[in-house]
Amino acid sequence: MAEARTGNDSLVPLPPGWKTLSVGARWQVLDTLLGKPWKNREINRQDLLEACRASQAAAPSQETQEILHLLSWLSDIERDTFSSSRADELESWLMTLTGERAAEVQAIGYHLLAHLYWSGGELARGLEFSIRAFKRYRHLMPERFPLKSKYWYDHANRYYYFRDFRTTRTLLQQMWEEIPDPWLEYRTSSLNTIAICYRQEGEWETSDQWFERAMKEAEKEGSRVWIGILRGNTAQNLLLQGKYEEAVPLLEENIATSRERNVFMDLAFSLAGLSEVRLALGQAGEAYRLIREAVDMMERRGKMANLEIRSRMLIPLGKALMATGRPAEGFAALDEGRIAQDSVDARRNALLLSGVQLKMEAESHLAALQVKEEQIRQQRLWNFVLALIAVGVSVFTFVFFRQKKRIAREQRRSDELLLNILPADVARDLKQKGKVDARHFGEVTILFTDFCEFTQWVERHSADELVADLDLCFRAFDDITTRYGLEKIKTIGDAYMAVAGLPQEIPDHAERAVGAALDIRNFVETERQKREKEGKSFFEIRLGLHSGPVVAGVIGLRKFTYDIWGDTVNLAARMESSGEAGRVNISEATRTRIRDLFSCTFRGRVPAKNKGEIGMYFVEVREV
């Protein structure tokens, strides 16, 4: 281990034979050394940079020089001196590389860029670079690129983040098929993920087979923690299919293992699962004891603020309380749990839809890069022809006028795009002043819509069907809100938000918003009935409205967003979440503004934070 020390004991030792390794193998060595103990501390990136500089000084090589370039770039990030221009420099440098080592260096560099943009929230760019890296290392031999399965696993999980389960499990299955056994990492974890993906697609038998394969791998590795997790996951498959008796031994084994290993999260979920089984088998007292232990455990560890944990704990707790004769407590727990579940579903749906959008954006940019490279090649050829025929003046004139027309066309397109995302008055202020002042509106009515059981619908349909049906609905919603003079604010996943009464104040904002809501409801119901006659499924919709004051303004620098804020927004969202499928649910405030115009049914009061209780009404029909 003394080769790269060059007589300096203060340098991290690189292994013998360092200079004979490929770039990919050298990078894997550095990856392995990072964070390892050395001289009473952990090895950091700067230590590796200094060791490589010493190695390069002692035995110069192009491979080490390229490693140094990548390490220098990473060192800048860790010292907070990174900028987008540095990322552009790295990308430009990677694109210039040619020869035998180019694919290895580019795979590393693009993977690092993917991680950087992804962790910084620029998911489309992160996915784009992840795809570019994958194309480089997929066909590299793992002997030359030992990090191949690690990078591959990370790439697949980017799709899992967006709930694109089909692409995730396809990538992981390909990883198992294409990477030789000695070089395969994340074995149990990747098999478990494949099984979960099949579960999400409703393919129970295939999911069980992959869980069994993961269990064999965990047993081979002797991982008690993974064995417990896999028992719990297999039991969850059985619970979802209503096979309660078969799930009991697996859950009990996992509870025992989790207690022994202090794996509290897995323990709590297994207790909750077993509680639901006991309740289904008529053992209400035991069901309550189990879920109470799980809830108390999560509360002691401060985990109940997490919406997913909250829903998975409070819904079975509410059911157990109801079954043991405490309906008031049970209703309260169920209400809190279902509100949390609605939020979790909304977030998942938003992730799924943003994933589709961002994947399209990443693929579009990749296609544009290929076009750009082809244009560069053609431009070089064209320049050569121009030099031969010496018609510089005429070519200049042609290019000048063509460019002028292109600029005018792009300006028109820019104006159209701006009007697509901002109201006309706001867009005009932004172009003239470079900013938009926030503005208070004393009277508006906000409309929220959301599709019921959207998550379950998504899991039964392809991404193409999903995008096509949402596009159909949102285009219709846009037409309806435009006809009534509402301003569309945004879509969030499968939710749609519009407002009447801005950017110009109008006295009949409530009437317009309720009229639009009824038309939207009727459109969805008509389409649903049409699909049912064809033997197909379609969405059901909830709608909620509330009237009051808001503040409106533009946020963002590179991607402008016109948005509104205030309690009125929160209460309108609460009206939607408290509604029912196929009904228009409005607040008391909106009801007072349309009293003589629409027939409404009072349906109770809902508690609102800092506002007390607010009356709710279902709108039935417009009065003639």
Please give the number of β-strands: 10
Q: Give start-end ranges of low-pLDDT stretches.
A: 1-7, 372-377, 384-393, 395-400, 414-419
Largest sheet entry: 8 strands, mixed
Radius of gyration: 30 Å
- Ends distance: 90 Å
Structural class: alpha+beta
Describe the global form: globular
Q: What is the average of the pLDDT values?
A: 81
Q: How many helices in DSSP terms?
A: 23
The helicity comes to 55-70%
Strand content bin: 5-15%
Structure description:
By secondary structure, this protein is an alpha+beta fold. Helix content is 65%, strand content 12%. It has 23 helices and ten strands. The chain has helices at 23-33, 45-58, 62-78, 84-96, 102-119, 123-137, 148-161, 165-178, 187-200, 204-221, 224-240, 244-261, 264-280, 284-300, 307-323, 327-389, 392-421, 424-433, 454-459, 463-484, 509-533, 567-577, 588-593, and strands at 37-38, 41-42, 439-451, 487-492, 495-500, 541-555, 561-565, 584-587, 598-608, 612-622. Strands 3, 4, 5, 6, 7, 8, 9 and 10 form an eight-stranded mixed β-sheet that branches. Helix 6 runs antiparallel to helix 7 (148-161). It is globular, with a radius of gyration of 30 Å. The termini are far apart.
